Amino acid sequence: MSSHVAPGDQATSGLDRRTELREFLRSRRARLRPEDVGLPSYGRRRVPGLRREELAQLAGVSYAYYARLEQGYGETMSAEVLDAVAHALRLSEEERDHLVRLAQPDRQSMTQAAPPPQRLRTSVQHLLDTLGVPAYVVSRRLDILGWNRLATAVFGNWAQLPPEERNVARLIFLSPEARDRFADPGRTALRTAGAVRMNAGKSPGDSYLSSLIEELSQKSEEFRQLWARHEVSCGAIGESVRMRHPLVGEFDLIHEPMALPGGAPMRLVTYHAEPGSRSEEALRMLTSWELEPLR
User: Taking burial as the number of CB atoms within 10 A of a residue's CB, which of 30, 196, 243, 269 is the most buried?
Assistant: First the structure.
């Protein structure tokens, strides 16, 4: 991987919140057909999905009021209106939260510049080392801040990478070696792009995240296509992920992320196998080989 923007550099000024809001709402309208929501459909449409006036009707607001929201002016909208729009668009909980953040961002998120690089507390690294399952910690920017040896057995040796390349999104979209560890890399890429967009919505003023998005857009056609879809999701908690390893083949792990309290947002991500399954045996073999030098 070539050029990058290190955490703390300010190459860009952040995402354009109003543009994000406009494109997000348009993308959600486009995925609904009139018959999906009980409306009559009259002939062919120039663009897919519901028209603005149809969405306004479903949400119980005037066309002008909804049009103003889709133009990026949501600051004066009430919570009830945003909830009605979210319901009409059939948004998931993650998507509804994303809509609210874009429409009515808090002042801190809008003025936030790129903060200093995050550091992992020593106590958290000790926790990782004592866990009996593959685990790592990521920042809101998806930088990998720490991991245990069992994670190395499953995902590869991140210690061999320069610190600036230890980022989940960069690995998934720019590293064939990292992608090969997933049996369904397309699904993993979709989830990763969704996580980047969700986190960017939480911190639209973060210039580092904007630079990451720009870099991935320049270097990965797949990322560009997924980014244009405006998906907002990092996958369901407890979701199964099929892994691929050159020594044990394919096996399934259950993905469990959880927020770490205190300081800047961080998430502890753990993976475990179903007890008694072939996947548990595959994981046991990998971890025993990884830990063998310690015996």
Answer: 196
As a whole number of angstroms, the distance between CA 61 and CA 55 comes to 9
State pTM to two decimals: 0.83
Residue 170 half-sphere exposure, CB side, CA atoms within 13 Å?
24
96: helix, strand or coil: helix
CA atoms 87, 89, 95, 99: torsion sign: negative
Q: Which residue has the tokens 């083949």?
A: 249
Q: Is 41 left (phi over 0), alpha (psi -120 to 50) or beta?
A: beta
Euclidean distance between CA atoms 17 and 201, whole angstroms:
8
Sequential DSSP letters for 231-255:
------TTEEEEEEETTTEEEEEEE
Instruction: Please state, in angstroms and rounded to a whole number, the distance separating the CA atoms of residues 76 and 21.
Output: 14
- Kind of pairing between the strands at 144-147 and 239-245: unpaired
Residue ranges of the chain with per-residue pLDDT less than 70:
1-14, 42-44, 107-117, 235-236, 263, 290-295
Strand duo 249-260 + 266-272: pairing = antiparallel
CA 41 distance to own-chain centroid: 34
Rounded to whole angstroms, how far apart are CA atoms 229 and 31? 10
Convert the pLDDT of each residue in 70-124 to its tens digit.
998 888 888 899 999 999 999 999 999 999 989 987 754 554 555 555 788 899 9
SS3 content of the chain, % helix, strand, coil (to 5): 50, 15, 35
User: pLDDT value at position 33?
Assistant: 85
For 75, the enclosing helix (H) or strand (E) is: none
Structure tokens at 256: 């469990």
Exposed / middle / buried, residue 126 (Cβ in 10 Å: 0-12, 13-18, 19+): exposed
Query: Given this model, what pLDDT does residue 52 score?
Result: 92
